Structure to design on (247 residues):
């Protein structure tokens, strides 16, 4: 009989990945990026505490840039063109993004309060402490993604461990195939399918998701092997065969 998993036990990490564990990597990646941004913002905040200088900049021009994503959603970014003089007499011209409220409430020719780093005058704040605020906000967002990463690890991890335990220690039984079930998601524009079955005690079960052609050898009425776990049975095509047995 055709096998999907083969005749060896499937490793825990592979089951974890197939059960959605790959989402953990996405959340961890986002968490790492946010942590890095928060760290940079906090370092800038410390630098402004140590060497920040206040002055006023001339608003030379202001403009906005509109971008549209693939879904048609518009995003507007606001910019100021500014000129100011440092306490050392150096003239600095720069363009930087600003918030929509400051953009609307400022006119060309206005004098805008600005803070700059004495060692890097093109590094500025238009609101005192904005880097510290950005660091705090980013840190909280990172915390949310950290919790999401733990949840993304916990749920598929718990299922993967249950599947491995059933394959090793659960009762080996036969079940009768009842058909296939199309999932609600697609990979490369192709739906994934689950094998469905009825067990000897009348309970119904279903497999992990596969490409349609991978399940075509299994027809309704055909017998398959399942391993009984604590809450459900697992198909040998998912978890592999226990050593010393065959389909």
């Amino acid at each position: 009989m055709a096998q999907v998993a083969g005749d060896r036990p499937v490793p825990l990490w592979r089951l974890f990945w197939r059960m959605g564990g790959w989402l953990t990597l996405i959340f961890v990646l986002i968490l790492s990026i946010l942590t890095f941004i928060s760290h940079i913002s906090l370092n800038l905040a410390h630098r402004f505490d140590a060497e920040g200088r206040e002055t006023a900049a001339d608003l030379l021009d202001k403009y906005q840039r509109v971008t549209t994503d693939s879904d048609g959603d518009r995003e507007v970014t606001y910019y100021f063109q500014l000129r100011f003089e440092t306490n050392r007499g150096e003239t600095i011209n720069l363009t930087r993004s600003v918030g929509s409220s400051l953009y609307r409430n400022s006119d060309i020719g206005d004098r805008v309060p600005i803070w700059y780093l004495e060692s890097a005058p093109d590094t500025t704040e238009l609101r005192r402490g904005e880097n510290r605020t950005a660091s705090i906000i980013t840190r909280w967002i990172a915390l949310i993604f950290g919790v999401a990463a733990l949840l993304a690890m916990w749920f598929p991890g718990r299922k993967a461990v249950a599947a491995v335990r059933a394959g090793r220690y659960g009762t080996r039984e036969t079940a009768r195939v009842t058909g296939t079930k199309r999932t609600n998601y697609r990979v490369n524009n192709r739906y994934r399918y689950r094998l469905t079955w009825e067990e000897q005690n009348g309970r119904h079960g279903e497999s992990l998701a596969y490409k349609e052609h991978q399940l075509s050898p299994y027809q309704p009425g055909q017998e398959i092997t399942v391993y009984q776990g604590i809450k459900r049975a697992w198909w040998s095509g998912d978890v592999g065969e226990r050593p010393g047995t065959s389909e």
Notes: The chain is about 40% helix and 35% strand. The CA atoms of residues 185 and 191 lie 6 Å apart.
